[in-house]
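Hi C.,

You asked whether I'd gotten around to modeling the 240-residue construct. I have! Everything is below, sequence then structure, no commentary in between.
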Amino acid sequence: MSLRLRDPGRNTGVAPEFVVDPVLLDAVSPSGDRGGIVVGSGLKGEPLTISALRAAPTRIVLVGGLYLARQVALRAMAVGAWVTIATGRPAAWQVLPKAAGNQPNGRPSPLVTIRRLSPVEMPRPSEDAPLLVVTDGGPTPQDLFPPRSPWHTTVYVLPYLHPQATTIANAADVVLMQRLPAGQAELAARIWRLPPQMMRQLTTLKDDQVVALGQNLWRPLRLVTTPKEQALLGPVRRGD
């Protein structure tokens, strides 16, 4: 089953609903459509959503800056996902526990966990508690937490394309790419067999633009930040 980009005006499919703590919704605006994650807006300003939390193991590759990766993770939290971050730079991800807040007993919310880049047992996902695992392991990440069950989505954060990441890139259900230098755009064209015009488009994207790539999918979109997200992440940008 391929992961599809959904336009509310063109797709009537229903994704599952998840229960979200009101405290979290007060920190991060709801940013999805019945379980989907809004990834940006189209040319006419319409919201574009992916059903990233679904009844199938799912892989998403992000090629670009840390801003994009943190925004996707925040929006997964906002629609009810448990989020685990496996990273070698934990300080860069502290914004997520901050957004999740504390439990009534004062302890940090268990909704977000930050771990080292080493194999550990993951929570068992379910329809009521989908799991998003972010692997922030550089341009050649180890596949430490591959999605193995329904309602488990793994996001691979690639700061840039590297030939050794080809296997993970090819296995992705959807790829979100920010602007690439010419050499990396050429590599992207080889990995996904892109025609020259698409390869050139990857080199001319603005800081707030992303291309969503998947099976029968090539869709440029514009990143949009809500006021609450901007307070946490700062303005939309290409880099970290």
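If it helps when you're writing up: The chain has seven helices and eleven strands.

Thanks,
B.
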